[in-house]
User: What shape does this take?
Amino acid sequence: MPQKTFETRARELASAFAAKDYERCSHLLPPLKVTLSQLNILVPLLSSELELLAVARDILEIGALTAIFLRDDLLFSRYIAQLSPFYAMKDKIQPPSLNEKKLIALRLLLLLSKNDIAEFHTELETLEDEADKDIYIRYPVTLERWLMEGSYDKVWKATTQRSEVPTEEFAIFADVSVQTVQVMADELLVTISV
Amino acid sequence: MATLTSATSLLALLDEPDQSLQVYALKNLNQLADEFWAEIADYVTKIEELYEDDKFPQSKLAALVASKVYYNLAEFDQSMHFALAAGDLFDLSLKTEYVETIVSKCIDSYIRSSQEAFDAPLKDQVEVAPDPNLVDVVERMFSRCIEEGEHKHAIGVALEARRLDTIEACINHAFQGGLTNGKIKSADNPLLSDGVNGVDDQAKKSEAAGAELINYVFEASMALVANKRWRDEVLLRMVELVERLHNPDYFTVAKILVHLNAADKAGQNILDLLTENTETSLLIAYQIAFDLVSSTSQEFLAKVVQMVEGSSTPGTSQALKILSGVPTLDVELTFLYDNNKTDLLILNKTKETLEARNSIFHNAVTFENAFLHAGTTADGFFRDNLEWLSRAMNWSKFSATAALGVIHKGNLSQGMNLLRPYLPGDSASQAGGSKYSQGGSLYALGLVFAGHGKDVLDFLRKYIREGSNSGGQEGEVVQHGAALGVGVAGMATCDDDIYEELKNILFSDSAVAGEAAGLAMGLVMLGSGSEKALEEMLQYAHETQHEKIIRGLAVGIALLMYGKEEAADALIDQLLDEQDPILRYGGIFTVALAYCGTGNNTAIKRLLHVAVSDVNDDVRRASVMSLGFILFRNPTAVPRMVELLSESYNPHVRYGAALALGISCAGTGLSEAIELLEPMLKDPTDFVRQGALISLAMIYIQQNEKTTPKVTSVRKTFAKIISEKHEDAMAKFGAALAQGIIDAGGRNVTISLENRQTGTLNMKAIVGVAVFLQFWYWFPLTCFLSLSFTPTAIIGVRSDLKIPEFSFFCNAKSSKFDYPPKTEEQTSKAPEKVATAVLSTTARAKARAKKSEKEKAEAEMEMEVDEKEPTAIEAEEEPSKMEVDGAEKEQEDEPAEDEEEDYDEEIAEDEIEDKQDIKGYKVQNMSRVLPAQLKYISFSRDERFTPVKKFRSSGGILVVRDSVGLRVKTPFIKTVRERNLPPEEQDEEDEALVPEPFDYETDTEL
Assistant: This one.
C-alpha cells in the first residue's frame, strides 16, 4: 500500500522538520517526491485528487524551508517553482497554506539578495494588492525601497539585528544581503569619487 | 477542476537529480507541450541534454518533447530531426497539426534524399542513402495508407520517392480487394455496376480498382514525374502488371507502350489480340492500330508492321491496312472534305486588298489560302485566280506550289496526280520549266505524304541525288524543295540512307540547298539522338561560312534531340556556350524540343535566364518562345510567366512572349492569354504586332462567340489591319496568316500539341510548330504549321473500315459549339432582307410550320430526356421554343433564314441560357466535335454502333462494334478515295471487303 507508507513517511517528515533535523528531512524528501509523482499529485493536474494536493503542498513547503536552512538557493528556487501551481489554485485546495506568504517573501528576499531587481518586481506584480500588508512580504519590500533610496544604514539595521527580522528563516539571508549592500555601497563610492 | 497555468513547476523538476522525477516531468510536458511551449523553450537545451545522456532511460521521450517545442518555434528541420530521434514514440496516427506537419516534412526530405540516391551513380549510393529513421517513418506511413485504402496517397509519395516496390504493393493490395477511393468512382461506371452480384462482382470491383490505380500511376507519372529514366522504369513495370490481369485493359497498355516507345511490345500485343481472334479482340486490335497510327512515329509503326506481318490470322490483313496509316488519312480527309466550312469571302477580300506585286503580300495570301483549306483538297481558289497566281515570282512561286501540298495534305490517293504537272522530270517542258515551281512541288509532295512517306520517298530521293548534277542556282532550288519534301515525308524514319544523301547535299556547301538539307536531316532522324548525326552536323556547322546552313543545322540538331529530356543536357550545355549566336539559337530550340510538354523546372529556369541575359536578340526571342513548348500541357501557367516579358523593352522578347502564349494556349481561348496579347496588337514594333496576331489566331482557333465572346472583334481586327493603308507589311502578313489559322482546315481543325487518344506528345504537331517558327527567316517554312492541324471530329469506323451513318448525343446547347457565322451573310444580306421582309403571309406560314415542328421536337425531347423538370419546360415556354430554334439551326444549312426570327430573342436567350435545363442534341457520325465539346458527348447503348473503347472524352477515330452484324445493310459515308475510284474498281474493292452490292451505297450517298 503506497498510500499508507506515503502517509507515514509524510508524518515522519513533518516531525523531523518540527525537530529541526534538516539533514534528515533532506534525506526523506527525494523519495517522497517520487511517491508524489507516482500518485500524480506532484503537479496539480486535471486528474489529481484535491484532498491529496494539500498534503503534497505541505511536503513541498517543508522541502522549500529545509532548502533554506541548508542554504541551498537552487533547491529552494525549484521548490518555489513547484509550489507555484499550488498557490495559483489556492482557493480550491483546503486547508489553505500557512506558509505561502512566508515562502513568497523569502523568494523575494532571495531575489533581492542576488540583486535581481527585475525578477523581484515581476514577482511582486503577480501578488495581490493586499500582499504588502502582510508582515512577511512587507519585509523584502521595505528592504528594497531602502536599498533604492540608498538608506544603507536602515538596511544594515534591518538585516543584522535579530529583532528586525520576522522569522529565523529570514535571518539566513542576512549574510548574503549584507554582502549585497556592501557591493552596492562600494559601487556608489566609486561613482562619486570619479 | 485543476488546471495548470504555467509549466514552471514541471520544468523545475527537470533539474532534479532523480531520473524518475525527470521522466515524470517529461511525460507531463509531452502532454502540455503545445500549450506551454514558450516556457519550455527556455529549457530546451536541458531537454536536449537529457536526450543525449546515454544513462537517461527515456531519451526518446526527451526527443519528442524537444521536437514539439521546435515545431512550435517554427524550426521545422530541428523538429523533424528530434521527431525522428523519438522513433516509435512519434505517433503517426494522431491527427494533430504537429504530426501532420512533421510527417509531410519527413516525406519531403525522404523524397529529396531518395531522389538524390536514385540519381547518384551506383557506387555512391550508400553515402546518400536516406537516414534509416526517416525511412522508418515513411515506411510506417506507407503501410498505414495501404491499410486504410488510401492507395493514391501512398502511390503519389512512392512515385516521387522512387519506390517501385511500394507502388507495386499498393496495386497488389487493391487487386486483393482492398478498399480504394477509386472504388466509389468505378461504381458509377455503368459497365461495372451492371456486373453480377456476389463474389464475382467483388472480384470484378477490386480488379477495376486495381486497373484504375494502374491508370492513375500512368497518368501521374506522365504528368508529374520529370525524371525520364524513373518514369520509364515505372511504366514498364505497370505494363507487366497489366499483362498479368485476366482481362487486361489493352488500351492502357498501348498508351504506355507508346510512351515507352516500345514498338516490339506493342506489336506483340496486337499479335496476341489477333491470335485470340474473337470479335472483340479484333476490334480492340483495330482500335489500337488506329491509336498507334495517330500517335507514333513512322519508325515505330514500321517495327509494329514488321511484327504483325508474320501472323496469318484472319484479322491480320485488316490490321496491317490500318497500320499503314492510309485509312486514318482517308477518313480524316473525307471529314475535312465533307465539312469544309471555309469562308471564301474573307480570303477574297484579303486578296483584293493586298497588292500581289509585292511578294510578301503574295506569300501572305498564299499561306492564308493554304491554311484555310489545309487538308480539304479544295484548291478552287488557285483555279479561280490563275492570273493572280501567275504573278508569283521566284520563291513566291515555290511557296504557292508548296501551298498546294498543304491543301491536299493526306490525299494519298491523288496527291501524286495532282502535283504531276508541276513536278520536274518527264513533264518538265509543259510546266514552263520553272525550277521554283518544281522545287515547290517536291516540297508539296512531301507535305501531302507527311509522315506517311513510303510511296514517295524514293521519288523524292531521286531529286536529291540528281539535283547536284544539274548544278547552278536553279538546281539548288529543286534540291531545296526535295530536301524539305524528304524531311517531311520521311519524318522520324531514322533511315540512314536518306540521311547520307542529305549529307551529300550539305557537303556541296550551297547555301539554299544546305539549309533545307540540315533541317531535313534533323527531321529524318527526329528524336533519335543519334551520336553520329549529331557529331557530323555540329562539325559542319562549325566549318561552313553560310549562315543559312548553320541555321538549318542548328534547328536540325534541335530536332534530333526531340523528347530526349535529360539525355540532351550535355548537348544543350555545349550549344549554349557556343560563340555563334545561331548555334545558341539551336541550343534553345533543343531545350524546347527535348523538354517539350514536360514542364521541367530546370529547363524553364534555363530559358528564362537566357531570355534576359543573352546578347543576341534572336536567341532571346527563341528562348521566350520556347517556354510555350515546355508548358503547353499547363497553359494557364504561361500567361503569368510571360506577363513581365511581354512588357519588355526589347521587341524580340515581346514577340517571343506573344508566340509562347500562342503555342501553349493554342485552341484554348484562354482569357488570361488574350488579355496579354490584346495590348500587343498596338505595339509600336511591326513584328510584335505580327506575333500577337498569329498567337491570337492560334488561341482562338475554332472558337465561336458563345465560347469566347471576343472572337468577333478579333476577327474584325484582322480584317482592319489588312485593309489599313498605313499598316506595316509585317503586321499585314501576320494578319493574313492569322486569318488563315483561325479558320484553318475549313474550320474543322485545331492546333493540339498533345494526342488526345493517348495523352502523348503529338510529334508531328510539335515539329510542325517548331519549324513554322523559322518562317521568321524563310517564308516557305510557314507551310509546316499545317502539320500541327488536327481534325476535330468523332469518326466511328466499323471493323471493315467503313463509316456507318449513326449518331451520338451531345448534352449541350447546339449553339455553344456551332461554326462561327459566315461573313457572307452580313454583306449580301442587306438587300435580301428588304425583299423578304414584306411577305407577312410567309412569315405566318413559317411561324405555323415552326410551331408544329416545335411541338414535335418537344415530344421527342420528352421521350429522350428523362423528365427532370417537366414543369419548368411548360412554365418557360420561351426558352424551350428557342431550344427548338437552336436545333433547327443545327439541322438546316441556311442559318440566314432563322436569323431574322432569332434577332429579337437573342438578348433574352443569353439571359436565360444559364438557368435553362440543357437538352442536348444528336450529332451525326463524322462531324465536327470540338475538344471542349467532347465531355458532353455520350454514346447510347441502344444504338446499333457503339465504340469498342470505353469513351473517355477523346475524339478521333473510334472503332465501333456493330451489334447487328456486318451483313445487315446500313448507309455508309464513302471516303474521298472511294469516290474518286473508277466504278469498276469500286466494285472489285468492295467485293474483297464485304459481299454486299455497292450500288446501294451510291444511292444513299450524302
The mean pLDDT of chain A is 75. The interface with chain B takes residues 30, 33-34, 37, 42-46, 48, 50, 53, 74, 77-79, 81-85, 88-89, 92 of chain A (CB under 8 Å).
